[in-house]
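Each field is set out as follows.
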Amino acid sequence: MIAVLKHGTTADQAQQLVTWLQHMNIDVHISEGQEVTVLGLIGDTSRIDMELLSSLEIVESVKRVSEPFKQANRKFHPKDTVIQVGNAKIGGGHFAMIAGPCSVESEEQIIEVATAVKASGADILRGGAFKPRTSPYAFQGMKEKGIELLLKAKAATGLPIITEIMNIRALDLFADVDIIQVGARNMQNFDLLQELGKTDKPILLKRGLANTLQELLMSAEYIMSEGNENVILCERGIRTFETYTRNTLDLSAVSVLHDLTHLPVVVDPSHATGKAKLVPPMALAATAAGADGIMVEVHNNPACALCDGAQSLTPAQFDSLNQQVQKIREAMV
């Protein structure tokens, strides 16, 4: 349920209403806009007399929210959420280029790539330390050492870093990581999501291979319901009958999610297509579709990459892509 307060409602009047609702064991999420204040009511709202609430002098309107996701719902929070890490901002008109290798392989490799992508305009460095792989015999990442090397690259370049967590037991290792990524395979690992909700770190939540957008938003709700509202959604392609690409990139998700939620939406064309030559056109299309950021894989020697070399751009290719992305964004203003 949401209650929209009238323009001119004072802070004291709003607080009196919030206190009354809280006495009924209702959690109240307050979203203050330039014109109106929206109260998102979470809990057993059946005990609230809608007619009584609507009749209050400071209340403009009251309505129930039918969608199962509440805190992620734009009706609860009309303004876009903007998430800042370092000097980078994502959402609310701010756009971030996230780039780096699929896997951290060595100190030399990650610092070379980080230096190159920063010079080309990247805002955030990505790199895998823990790697979920389909085969148990494939490279699983450098784990704790990989995070140490990412932090060295951060110190060398000043770029904030993002890397994926697979198990909540490893959370202490992520103390200095700027954004924690939840991969597609863990999108519905609800125990993990709830624990991440108890942190104050931004969480980039990837859509599962076969999940609906509502399921993605419900996973975001797991994080937000524990108190962490710093969630970034990521469209990275879904599994369909098409086999030419690694997955099928659902660019309509960008517009649909922006309509449903206030959370930022970024697109990962690398995992979506699985082919380096398809990454630039899909990144440009995602930009034109209104994405709040692009996340691409960049490797200094894709042919020798330990993971996902076929979908990785070279630093030179990333430089060209970023220039094109900026032109698209300029044209959209």
